[in-house]
Amino acid sequence: MNYHFITIEGNIGAGKTTLAHLLSRHYNARLVLEEFADNPFLTKFYENPKQYAFPVELFFMAERYKQLKELIQTRDLFQQFTISDYLFTKCLLFAKVNLPEEEFRLYQKIFEIIHQQMTQPDLLIYLHAPVTKLQSNIKKRQRPYEQSIPDEYLFNIQETYTHYIRQHNIKTLFIDVSNADFLSNEKQLKTIIDALEIEYTEGQHYLTLP
To answer: Which candidate in 76, 85, 122, 181 is catalytic?
Structure first.
């Protein structure tokens, strides 16, 4: 394993946190999980997106910055390998979908100042699932504020992610998780672990699960 910092990304309900837990356990890696439940504007945002989009995104950016900055400053010598279930750039991508143009330009200026200080992952794992699968997963985990997310919103998030990754030619392992069940299917997890032994070049690489 030649990677020191791997980030797992994907749409809402793609299985990021589940996979992050499993991989961190396998590698005895330091685990960084997004603390989304601490955002006091999140429930209000789902009820009234136009009114609460800016504060919800600003709060997320501040919290993600604080968490990742602490990670950079307090490197654990006994856990050289770190896995995170979010990419800091997620801030900008969700803001692009959620904010009107003038607010987005302001948000982008703040983001660019902070982003320069962030450590970028050695490899991005992107979990890709159709909207029907995402909605099924969202319903299973039963977070009340997520239960009425429109299909169109999930589709827009998906398109924004994939466009950004390809546009910036980020070193990414795209995994089709249409039929993923990481908790029950050990073969799927092993396929990912085997794939992480490969030293990938820049650009996008694709993995299909058994």
So the answer is: 85
**What CATH number is given to the structural domain containing 165?**
3.40.50.300
C-alpha dihedral, 80 to 176 to 34 to 23, nearest 10°: -30
Q: How many domains are contained in the chain?
A: 1
Instruction: Compute the average pLDDT of residues 179-194.
Output: 95
Q: What tokens appear for 35 in the block?
A: 């603390």
Q: Which band of pLDDT confidence, cut at 50, 70 and 90, is reported for residue 117?
A: confident
Decide: residue 122, CB within 10 A, 0-12 exposed, 13-18 middle, 19+ buried: middle
Distance from C-alpha of 20 to C-alpha of 27, rounded to nearest angstrom? 11
What is the pLDDT, as a whole number, of residue 179? 95
Please report, for residues 19, 162, 208, the alpha-carbon distance to residue 204 in angstroms, rounded to integers and kept in the order given. Answer: 19, 10, 14
169 is written with which tokens?
């030619």
CA-to-CA distance for 129 and 181, rounded, in angstroms?
12
**Distance from C-alpha of 76 to C-alpha of 148, rounded to nearest angstrom:** 40
Domain of residue 175 covers 5-208
Query: Can you tell me whether residue 91 is helix, strand or coil?
Result: helix
Whole-number pLDDT of residue 17: 95
Residue 85 known to be catalytic: yes
Q: Is 80 exposed, middle or buried (0-12, 13-18, 19+ CB in 10 A)?
A: middle
Spell out the residues 6+ positions from residue 121 whose beta carbon is closer than 8 angstroms to its own: 5, 6, 7, 84, 87
Look up residue 57 and give its amino acid.
E
